[in-house]
Batch of 4 targets.
Target 1
Amino acid sequence: MHPNTDKEFLINTGSYIVINRGRVPAKDVEFVLNFKVDEISVWPQRQYTVEMNPEGRQIVRFATFAPKEIATVNIINMGKALPKVLNVRNAESVGRMIEVYPQQRLPKYFTITIWFLLIFGIFFVGREIISFALRIVRLVWT
């Protein structure tokens, strides 16, 4: 419920992780949204500017991104859908979108057990395939 009215409204949030996976600093990084949002925040705190281009697209601009540097751009819209990210680019290249999903971190013993069973299964299936192939060869040659 909105604090000043009895009407319900929707708050949409989105988080985007921007990473420089290169070996050199990225200069003049632009994060372009399809339309203006109500609120933008960047974490960890760093200097950035928010601008509108002539077509009405909102641009979050960073001066530089060091190699392996990571920043999260969080956006909030109240009562309307979130815009799509149109582009992430710098002076030398264009970024690409990689979808990620949060995943529970499993205990180490569980991961080791899964790896052991996977490797054991590969050897077992390989042995059965070779055994089957040898039986076929024996049938054909005898």
Target 2
Amino acid sequence: MLEEKTVDHKNMKKITFFTIIALLLVSISVTSVSAQNQYEIPSWVKGVAGFWSEGKISDADFGEGLAFLIDNEIIKIPKIQELQDKVSTLQSENANLRSKLNLPQSVECGDNQIEQNGICRDIICGPNQIWQNNQCQDVVVGPKNNLNLQTDKVLYGQGDLIIISGLIQNIENLGSSDVSIIVRAPDNSIVAMAQVHPNANGSFQMSLKADGPQFITAGNYAIFANFSGLKSEIKFKFTGGDGGFVSGGETPITCPSGQTLVNGKCVSITISVTTDKSKYNEGDTIMVTGRVTSILVGVPISLIVTNPNGERVILDQLGVDLYGKFSTKFTAGGPLMRDSGIYTIEVTYGSQTRTSETTFSFAGSSDSGPKETKMAVAGTEFMVSYKITGGNLISITPDVEANSLIIAITASQDGSLVITLPRSLIDAKMGAQDDAFFVLIDGKQVGFEETTTSTDRTLTIQFPAGANKIEIIGTFAVS
């Protein structure tokens, strides 16, 4: 019985081709090729090419064979050989010359060059690569930080609950601070302000009810968020309201005097405040704590400290935690707190009907106060007068899109900035009336003291040691 065998024609062709090459190499050893033409292509190569043209040898096999012939200089290409010879000659001459001049054989190349065979050649890497550790390596791009902001709907009516949420991407690369949120009406007046602490994964959320005197005008409302220099803005549409408070989104409820609508019920809200001590000396830390009996979402505590002459020395806004508690601290003394005597702390929670106060005694300060100086506002012709303690003012830059001024400072210790702002540079208006500025220190909302004239507004802002940026937000800023 005959055994069937399968013939691999492809391998047979390859074996045949290299057998031919081997036999021809033997013949070359005894045959002179000096009579060949200027390209030095042996005549027997044409036979091999014939096998290829007839399909007896594949393209890959034929290419490998030609490479073998060229590498072993059976087929010589004059120009390539001539250039190789010249390079070898130049390298040899270079080495001899360096030896005669007692120079090192290595070549010192530029920053963007590498030595190859004694010659400096330019380093050329890919579009997203750099030269590192003697090779081109991919550039590793760090994670990008973004602040995303959204609402649960795009259209709201009176009494609807507006849920504002967001995500800070790669929050672990940023400092720990709160997200500052401002809601503005169509006329750019501030409807609500809040400080929201983000979760560990960068997510945050707050809610706001579309009712009350802040929500009357129909139109597009804007939400601005700021976290450690990251900013985001979105808009929603409000159909309009009558200024009343709404329960269940249907019928407005009017509460008796002294009560407030909370979660659909009229309740009495009380507020209390105290300090950790009754007497303080210059440099002491004054701890202020307090509590409210019911929480109003998005409503801060307004705190005012007045000196024995009735002049305001500190103005601040404080957040309320889930348990209704609030706190702050400041240093006794400084340019605004020099007089000795009894100081009063007054706190207000959304209405003058919800107030409380406490007092403390201060021994007085030896601080004579800072000198007034001026600084130019970048990109404008304005010069701004200011006084600063505890640090230095570096620059003042307008942010037209945010209607704000960015003030760069260095703060070696707790201090204060008294700055006079021309109304033609920046202002905050609600119609024809003055509106409150919104002040952030390194992204966190703070209180301030203010005096006004028809042409200027002077703000006194307390800042902590290590502060870098103060942002004053209004409804208009010069472009």
Target 3
Amino acid sequence: MRLMKAIDFAGGVLSIEHRKLYDEYVNVDILDKDPENGTKYKTDVYSDLNFLKKLPYPDKYFDVVRAEMILEHLTNIYPLIGEMNRLAKSTIKIAVPNALAYDNRISVLFGVNRCYPNPFKDILSHHMYFDYNAAMSFCEHFFPEFKVRNISYKCYGRFGSIFKHFIKIRPTLFATEIHLELERIGKM
């Protein structure tokens, strides 16, 4: 059995489940509890990812590097992208919000632009949104040594249980998240 090592950037509450999947697991986060519901989780390295410094791990140390639903919150993605490229041995997993999701489209119809909220009012607001093409271009540009192996979509929110059945028909319309799994090209 192969030992798997993973690092999760801002794993949040998901880090509780992710920790069970790997033999060695590191969660890098600025918090240790969910700000919305107070659920506590273990943070191994405390860091503001906007100002992430080089972590004390050798190059290509982790089999899996995860950054799910965090990139859109950062005002400076370059330190995180650099560490993800450096630390990933074989796999990078990214999840980003879908700008074209039904709930974003509906909110715009009613005069609420959820895609570009006021960052001065909400420090946790989204600074970036993606659609399928933007997510693919993002990966090609920032992860040139990797190729997209798998794309999947998830649906959350008030109507998530209803619309998740429609994702197979029109993923870019009904999915609230785009999940990408990248694999390193060539030798490791």
Target 4
Amino acid sequence: MLNSQGYELLFIDVESGSQVNASSMKETEWKTTSVLFGWDVQGIWPGVDYTDVNAVDRSKNGKILATGDDFGQVKLFQYPCVNEGSEYQEHYGHSSHVTKVKFSHNDEYLFSTGGNDLTVFVWKTDWGTSSGPSGAGARAGAAADDDEIQMDSQGEYGSEGEYDQEVDPDDDDFYEPDIAGAKQERADKKQPAKAAPTQDYDSEFGDMGDEYAAADEFMAVKPWIGAIKAPTHFTKPEPNQEMKPDVSAELEWVHGYRGSCNARNNLQVTSDGGLAYFAAGVGVVLEQGTENTQKFF
């Protein structure tokens, strides 16, 4: 499963290299999730446009979704994140766009890399070393009867990854992407341009006009929509699925130091022998000893 340069959602058979129909893949349990456009990440977008999020990664226990965006934020969502406007935890520190986020093998750490700030942040999570279902199993857990998604002492869901009820497609609680609407959008795009009043981007934004016009067209088409297929027995998440996850991540270490000409005098020695400097948007005091530690401000 991948996103193309044209923002399509594609499924490729690794052995043959051929493209696979999206409908035949909707029950697949994916070991990892890192696509920006897909069924289970629809709620990560802030609503401005569809270019602000740069990276996505799902925790190994299948319960948390991390994103990195153009605003220097690292966000944590509940997984799956299918509802528009889902709430999230936000973590700051980067002074530039976040280019990548990645969980460690046991979820104990979350790594994020900055663009122009040239740093790597290590975030310590409070749910590390837990295990649990992924893919469809996590989706089934979202439909459980519990008031909120919680991890027990083993870090597992109450369900065993099985869908626990049949779904009536006519039920209002059944979640199904608006495929008909997406098809109509594409059909409308093929119609001859009308003489209706349009936004004059050139006169309003000058040289930036072409970029804004292209963004408007991109938002209208949404090339990935046609390939989004909900699992057959997925029920619409409870309202609390839209809430921010009940977990935390704290900054553990900042790798990187900027000593170029536009950051002179960016290193001082504290009275007790520590080194004070800034990296990205964080003030750092490195306390030297048998075990080096960092404090952040």
